[in-house]
Amino acid sequence: MGIKTCIFCQGTLERSSDEHVLPQWLLGYLKIRGEDISPTHYSFQSGSTVVSTRRHKVDNLVEGRVCSKCNNGWMSSLESEAKPLLVPLMEAEKEVVALKPDERLKVARWAFKTALVLNSASNFHKNVPPAHFYHLYNTQESLPPSIAVIGQQHHGDSPFYWLQMSFVLTSDQAADLSMEEAKALVATSYKISFQLKKLLIVVAWWPHPGWRYVIWRGIHVPLWPPKGPVDYYQNDPVSDGFPWEDSLAALTTLHLTFSVSRKNGS
Predict the structure, then answer these.
(1) Handedness of CA 195, 201, 206, 212 (dihedral sign)
(2) DSSP state of 2
(3) What are phi and psi of 249, to 5 degrees?
(4) How many domains does the chain have?
(5) Is residue 10 part of a domain?
(6) Does residue 13 fall inside a structural domain?
(7) Biggest alpha carbon distance in the chain?
(8) Given 3-state DSSP classes, what are the helix, strand and coil percentages for the chain, each rounded to the nearest 5?
(9) Which of 30, 41, 152, 179 has its Cα between 20 and 30 A from that of 158?
(10) Residue 215 lies in a domain
């Protein structure tokens, strides 16, 4: 058996500590401790067939490859910094757009950490590079290159949900690519989104040069990076507008419409 290492600091895992995807304080705040969940991995290339399904309590969604030093050190500090920002955002007592630059970074780092642990702990493709875990551990002032964190709020009342998948390229986006080239691009990307009461978050990575993220003006609120070139949809990508009242529809719409383009406009 190989030597186990911490997914964040990459040190030898002599003493592990189960890291909850949602921290204990948040499980209690959302009142979902002990709730049954069935995380399901679908293969959309095979007609939305089910690849695997797990059934367990939400507080059993943990990642055991985190050392106690990371768990009780910088990760604990990150939770302490993010909690007073997350609570009013989850209650819609404060708007995402009202966050100051330093607050956006704190929320973005917390969201990035949550997305990484969620991917590592779940029954889904492990397409998050190890360098992303180490960057979060080693750097407090930034996130890895090409990482984007998007926020928004809605009016639904579901406590928690999440989605994760690679980007999906439309026929127009992949017009001059072979199927193998398009698959290779998509395979080296990820998009992980979650909803916490009124708060919606998308964490995405499309690392390929010559492309830009495409955002829905007024809907996708960038938390990270603080600036950079993007393209905007010229028309609303959803004919009926954003589904503000439905938690699952709002999360799914925010997730799917955050896209990429190789040309100005979309």
Answers:
(1) positive
(2) P
(3) -65, -40
(4) 1
(5) no
(6) no
(7) 55
(8) 35, 25, 45
(9) 41
(10) yes
* Rounded-to-integer distance, Cα 66 and Cα 60, Å: 15
CB-count burial class (<10 Å; 0-12, 13-18, 19+) for 25? middle
pLDDT digits (tens, 9 = 90+) for 239-261: 999 999 999 999 999 999 999 99
- Helix (H) / strand (E) element for 101: namely helix 101-121
What's the whole-number mean pLDDT along residues 104-111?
Answer: 98
The closest of 185, 193, 143, 142 to 165, measured between CA atoms, is: 193
- For residue 38, the tally of other CB atoms under 10 A from its CB is 8
Q: How many residues does the chain have?
A: 266
pTM attached to this predicted model? 0.89
Position 123 in a domain: yes
* DSSP symbol at 232: E
Distance CA 39, CA 162 (A): 9
Helix axes 101-121, 130-138, angle to 10 degrees: 140
**pLDDT band for position 93 (cuts 50, 70, 90):** very high
